[in-house]
Amino acid sequence: MVDSTTAAPPATPAASNPTATNNAALAQLSSNFGTFLSLLTTQLKNQDPLSPMDSTQFTQQLTQMSGVQAQLQTNALLQQVAANTSSGVATAVSLIGKNVRALSSTADLKAGKAEWTYNLPADATSLKLEVVDSNGKVLHAEAASGANLKAGDHDFTWNGKDMAGGTAPDATYSLRVTALDSGGKALDSTTYVQGLVTSVEQANGDTLITVNGSKVSWSTVKSITDAAAPAATPPTATGGS
């Protein structure tokens, strides 16, 4: 009869690192399981046909090995959930009630208003702003001029009206900024959403915060101010009409 314990015992990882311990255990278990199957196959090929070995014991050992492997994988999942909770949600919860600025090209249209802030790294000679829906359709487009071409931050507010004069439904939209410098070279603009954080949630392993109704990853937050303090006001602003 094959004994799965004949494989070399697992090395003892550092007790202070649960993830390393679990990974080492999984690696050792996989090695033991492979050795067990190899020995089992060899014994089955060479067993005495007049006195076959008891298959029940084989089944029990296979079940035990599979059970241990499943438990280790469950432990790994629980460790990941715990890590996400401690490093993500717990940190993000402290942002509720704060004014934040986060990297995002998307914003929610609600009550006839969607707001973004875009930043130009240098003065532009040409600047086009486009509001795009989830299918990539351009609903609004305008060319900026004057102070809105200067380097720095600029607010942009869209009132939800499309180019045909209709009203777009409340949904999530993206702002596309196309800026060119005096030499006709594209400028790498940056788009933000900013406002009060009202909620925190976790989805698909990412911690999301709600800013002005839009959900963004908390890891994209670039600045935080107390809600009692006035938020920084960009020097210029544009508006969709």
**Overall number of domains:** 2
How large is the count of helical segments? 2
Helix content: 25-40%
The structural class is alpha+beta
CATH class of the largest domain: Mainly Beta
Q: Might you state the CATH topology name of the largest domain?
A: Immunoglobulin-like
Quick structural gist:
The protein is α+β, with helices and mostly antiparallel strands and 241 residues long. It has helices at 18-46, 55-93, and strands spanning 98-103, 106-108, 114-120, 126-132, 138-143, 152-158, 172-180, 190-203, 206-211, 214-217, 221-226, 236-239. The model is unreliable at 1-16 and 231-237 (pLDDT under 50).
List keywords for this structure.
single chain, alpha+beta, Immunoglobulin-like, 2 helices, 28% helix, disordered N terminus
Describe this entry's structure for a reader.
The protein is α+β, with helices and mostly antiparallel strands and 241 residues long. It has two domains: 12-93; 98-239, Sandwich (Immunoglobulin-like). 28% of the residues lie in helices and 33% in strands. The protein contains two helices and twelve strands, in the order H-H-E-E-E-E-E-E-E-E-E-E-E-E. It has helices at 18-46, 55-93, and strands at residues 98-103, 106-108, 114-120, 126-132, 138-143, 152-158, 172-180, 190-203, 206-211, 214-217, 221-226, 236-239. The strands form two sheets. Strands 1, 3, 6, 8, 9, 10, 11 and 12 form an eight-stranded mixed beta sheet that branches. Strand 9 (206-211) and strand 10 (214-217) form a beta hairpin. Helix 1 runs antiparallel to helix 2 (55-93). The longest helix is centred in the first third of the chain and has 39 residues, at 55-93. The radius of gyration is 29 Å and the shape is elongated. Residues 1-16 and 231-237 have low confidence and may be disordered.
